[in-house]
Amino acid sequence: MAAKEKHITDIGPPHYRDMVHPVLLKNYGKWRYHEYVAPGVIKHVSMNGEEVYMVRAAIPKIVSVYFVRELCDIADKYSDGYVKFTSRHNVEFIVANKNKLEGLLKELKEKGWVVGGTGRSLKAIIHTQGWVHCHTAIIDAPGLAKALYDELYEYFVRDDLPGKLKIAIACCLNMCGAVHCSDLAFVGMHRKPPVVNDDIVSRLCEIPTLVASCPTAAIRPAPEKKSVVVNEERCMYCGNCYTVCPGMFIHNPKYDCLSMWVGGNAVAGGPPEFSRLAIPYLPNNPPRWPEAVQAARNVIDTWIKHAKKGERIGDWIKRIGWERFFTLTGIQFTDKHIDDFIFAVPTFRTTTLFKWR
Ligand code: SF4
Ligand code: SF4
Q1: For a FRET experiment, which of 182, 206, 269, 274 has its CA 20 to 30 Å from that of 105?
Q2: Ligand 1 binding residues, C-beta < 6 A
Q3: Domains of the chain
């Protein structure tokens, strides 16, 4: 019998070392120092004196093939065909030849690319998929990101803020973005339990899977109608059940909203800080979400005015206390800030609990 041809079916991603710029590879683990040359430009110097310049530019999270072609053309011209994507959706051109730096910056400017986001600046906004790509989205995260960028653009191109400013947006509680550990974040929220459509549930959904999908065990079977019932006391409006069964209607234009969170942080070398609730309700008001944008601007401008150099929003709040945070920002502290959910005990340390004077 002829030997079977060997098919490789699971090749996975290429090894990252195959994609690293040769100068970076040569000096891997041997960098001596780096300096911020200008907003968006970082110079790295290695032990053997070699230099490389990183030019960081903001890009949208969802891009077209034409955009990628333009990106590759620029990389071929200035950075030997190498680019790097950062964890916050920026792109970095690696310029090993200093003489090409000015040309790259000039071309990026001419083409409308924005260079910045290094040091004490606004980083690119992390956001989730929104209405185009995900069926559980309450808000359109990319749309809100655009509205925020338009308002906060200046903070991306300057690096004299008190500290780094990381913003994240998630369109539902599944929170595919880094909302829990960003300085300022928005989360789309349902505020009512799902309405069960028995007809759809009985015809389209697997009852055991649906029951198992609920993280708080709020769903139990209703065998008499081949459907389920929801214990509203236990429901936290997460929408997980809707993900596995389209008969669990959870979207509600009248009640769905945004919430704003502040003070999250995930710095290397220290424990992560969870974001905490600052505003429980903001209207879901597309296409520009003016109330949410204004709320973000208010917190950011208050932080810039009152924080010490090096303090991120969470550090600043920790120093002045939550009570003063609410006073300075003019945000109302309400009963909604107090976590009274039946499973609240494990989350007490992640809320804005404090003793009001
Ligand atoms: S956050 Fe929710 S709605 Fe947005 S992409 Fe993730 S699962 Fe979908
Ligand atoms: S919305 Fe979440 S908590 Fe409520 S019933 Fe569905 S899965 Fe359970």
Answers
A1: 182
A2: 128-129, 134, 136-137, 170-172, 174-176
A3: 16-115 (3.30.70.3340), 122-191+253-350 (3.30.413.10), 195-249 (3.30.70.20)
